[in-house]
Amino acid sequence: MSAELIYLFTFLIFFYIRYSDxxxxxxxxxxxxxxxxxxxxxxxxxxxxxxxxxxTISYYYFGYWIFGTLTKxxxxxxxxxxxxxLVTIPAMTASTLFTLSAIxxxxxxxxxxxxxxxxxxxASAAGVLMGNLQGILEFLRINSVGSQEFWRxxxxxxxxxxxxxxxxxxxxxxxxxxxxTSRIINHFGPNCEAAGLDYTINEFPFxxxxxxxxxxxVMATPFFLVFVYLAYDLARTDLANPLKxxxxxxxxxxxxILACVCFINMWMVPICIAILIGIHFLKWLSDPKLxxxxxxxxxxxxxxxxxxxxxxxxSSLQTSVTGIEKTQYQTRALHGFLVWAPLLMLTIPQIVWxxxxxxxxxxxxxxxxxxxVVVSLPWLVRLISPGASAGFxxxxxxxxxxxxxxxCFISTLTLLNVTAKEGISEKALVLSLxxxxxxxxxxxxxxxxxxxxxxxxxxxxKLHYSAWxxxxxxxxxxxxxxxxxxxxxxxxxxxx
Length: 496
Fold this sequence. Notes:
- The chain is mainly alpha-helical.
- The protein folds into 4 domains: 2-104, no CATH class; 134-182, no CATH class; 220-314, no CATH class; 320-484, no CATH class.
- Helix content is 62%, strand content 2%.
- It has helices at 2-20, 29-40, 62-74, 78-104, 113-128, 134-142, 148-154, 205-211, 216-219, 221-235, 247-264, 269-286, 292-314, 333-357, 364-384, 400-422, 426-446, 457-484; strands at 323-326, 447-450.
- Strands 1-2 form a two-stranded antiparallel ribbon.
- Helix 14 (333-357) runs parallel beside helix 18.
- The longest helix has 28 residues, at 457-484.
């Protein structure tokens, strides 16, 4: 019942937001609306391209197809279903995060439900309501806090100087002042006076819902969370015995959800495959009965199911990807802190504590070697990628990039030690999700997917968004374990 209440509460919040601003008239909303209308008008086959008559949409359009189908089933106009989709998606995401948080925290202090509920609420809030620290800076700036030098050091687009005019409001009143929360990472030269050299998009879920763009990365989020859980559930299955009744149905279901996630947002293909391979490796590490053949069979069957479903779509897909390019400018440590501090403050204390307190396994040399390989892979890709090296005037790699690499290393090492001792536990899963989130944050610092934009903007955008979802999922478990050391359930006296 709790998850349903979370869904309803979140639905009402975003229903009010869309009711207050139901327009479909800015940024990329017209394109999203065109794709939705094309999906509504499609009877069979692929939706038609709204710009090129007679051609089909060469884009990952399954999310529009889903809501287009719901539009026809509900007998409502697409202008209504567009806004209802932007209400339904955060509600689905919040309730799924709450449910998964409850599942991951059930093993310890299971009867102390208040703490588990609080942790689930925190995970939901982190996933759909939390933002970065730019909003705090905006309030400081509008109230004339900070010198010229202070704001020059902050160096965020549109905030390089303090407010000089007198205002009669304690809060920002500038049109779309909150838009700057998604444009934090950039480089304006050593004195913050040049044109932006590293334009990126640092979007997060609440920004997406507030902006109102019905993009694939938004629609894919609840499906992606379901995939994460199903992969975890599969790891608790006896993969060494494929004749069990639950084996093939789980394989088929994961393959279907994998196809759905990738069909909605193709950027999640490598992320989902990484989760599959990683969870099978952890299963192999914890289960000596599992052979490489069994592990390979499981992965191959899942990929085969997903590919078979996507064949009609993939056969006509055209892409503008030009290859892998070396990142020229890295993120300033300050900008990285402003973007990720809210989520990292809720996760890092528990991650570091687990690293410090987890006993070393007898195979510690092996685990250190694997951890080094994991964190070295993005660096190796950078080494062999074409493109110029970092500009001498740009941010140093020693700051943010090195810190993320270190966090990835200690979480991966702790993950391997925990898995070797406990098997595929909830703690192991959260550690693996945290490690994956760190890799997703690290990748755009080293290389990016080349496209029509010619920079790392889109790679930062898509990978950071997925990392935000993974860290939000971790928040519930880490907060639960963190607080359980300070909050004790009441002692009851048993009378005979």
